[in-house]
Amino acid sequence: xxxxxxxxxxxxxxxxxxxxxxxxxxxxxxxxxxxxxxxxxxxxxxxxxxxxxxxxxxxxxxxxxxxxxxxxxxxxxxxxxxxxxxxxxxxxxxxxxxxxxxxxxxxxxxxxxxxxxxxxxxxxxxxxxxxxxxxxxxxxxxxxxxxxxxxxxxxxxxxxxxxxxxxxxxxxxxxxxxxxxxxxxxxxxxxxxxxxxxxxxxxxxxxxxxxxxxxxxxxxxxxxxxxxxxxxxxxxxxxxxxxxxxxxxxxxxxxxxxxxxxxxxxxxxx
Length: 270
Known about the structure:
By secondary structure, this protein is of the alpha+beta class. 39% of the residues lie in helices and 24% in strands. The protein has nine helices and nine strands.
């Protein structure tokens, strides 16, 4: 991925310079289009980070879970949090780095945020500011408005929480490795050495959702990634173990409110 602001040759990472070394409370960077997938190794920095996808899908992982970022959404990563990121499909995104003291109203936990047209334009404008100079006047006021809009951005339910319990972690690993697995709850519980009742209770306590809902959320995330790669809805449905396309489309519509192809197309033309 190439940074149009800094001229960085960073196809394998989003950012490869010390953002904490830039002595400015808010730093926005516009990152140009990449036609191949990229991956950023686990890292952390003092500044909080917003990753905003215009095209393609960004996959962000922290210890507590996985966040999927489809077009016109962003993932907010609080400062000091270890995280890794991956781009899927032809990606174009913006990065916003914010000193913790400047973001008291922003979420204290990692989350996916919907980006309004106004917030998008504010981010794009801020990315055009000189990187290493102090902001004054209109630029400073624009950044203040950007932070206000960011704090008001609605949270999207595109999160795949990861459990702390070792047995549930094993189950998550099994489902991630074989998302088309059609095992019953009793069979999954048996595989990880738990009773079905204990597995269900522990899943709700740790992840806030049942194993079945977690699996559906996994399917939505995988589907968004595959759609960004250009796979057909039919191919994705078969890959995820659905007997027909309509069953998969029904699941996806219930989860996000729209059928998969329309959901992604509307976001890419937003």
